[in-house]
Amino acid sequence: MLTAKVVHGSLGAMRTKRAIRKLRHSSRSWRAAACALGLIVALPFLAQAASSQEPGPKEQAWVPTSHANVQEGPGSGSALLVIVPRDTVLPIVGRRGEWVQVQLSPELRKTGIVTRWYDGKREIIRRGRRITIGDEDSGWMHDSTVEITEVEAPE
Q1: Closest Cα partner for 64 from 93, 86, 94?
Q2: Residues facing 82 on adjacent strands
Q3: Which residues 6+ apart lie within 8 Å of 144 measured at CB?
Q4: Is 127 left (phi over 0), alpha (psi -120 to 50) or beta?
Q5: Helices (H) and strands (E) in the chain — how many of each?
Q6: 138 touches 93 (CB < 8 A)
Q7: What stretches of the chain show up as alpha helix (H) in DSSP?
Q8: Is the full-model pTM beyond 0.70?
Q9: Within 13 A of 114's CA, how many CA atoms are on the CB side?
Q10: How do residues 9-47 score in pLDDT, each as one tens digit?
Q11: Separation of alpha carbons 114 and 83, rounded Å
C-alpha cells in the first residue's frame, strides 16, 4: 500500500513537471509574440517622433540693455560666466522658472567680458568636492534681462 502511494505520487509529480515545462515553453512563445507585436506598434510612433523633431532652438534671447549676465546655474547665487554686451542674440536651449538657458559661442570670448569661462577644462576643489569647470557650452540668464523672440525659419 505504501509503495502504491509513492508510485502514484511520483507519477503525479512527473505530470506536474511536464505541465510546468509545457507552460514555460508556451509562455516564452507568448512573450516573444508580445515583444514583436509591441515593436510593430511602437515603430511608427518612434519614426514620427524622430521626424517631427526640428534641429536647433525655437527661441532666442536678445540683450536690449547695455549688458546682461550669463551665470553658471539658474539662480542669482550662481557663478558669473560672462557679461554679454547690448544686441547680443543667444539661442535658448532650456528654461527653468524665470531663468532661460542659453547656448554660448566661442565668439563671446571676444565680444563679452569673460569672468570664469576658461580655455580648457580644469578641476578645482569647491566645498570639499572635486569639480570640473571651464569651456561651458551653455549658461543661464534671468528672463527680465533679455527679450525672448521666436527664431525665424530660413527661407
Answers
A1: 86
A2: 70, 114
A3: 98
A4: left
A5: 2, 10
A6: yes
A7: 2-52, 108-111
A8: no
A9: 15
A10: 555 555 666 766 665 666 566 666 665 555 565 556 555
A11: 6
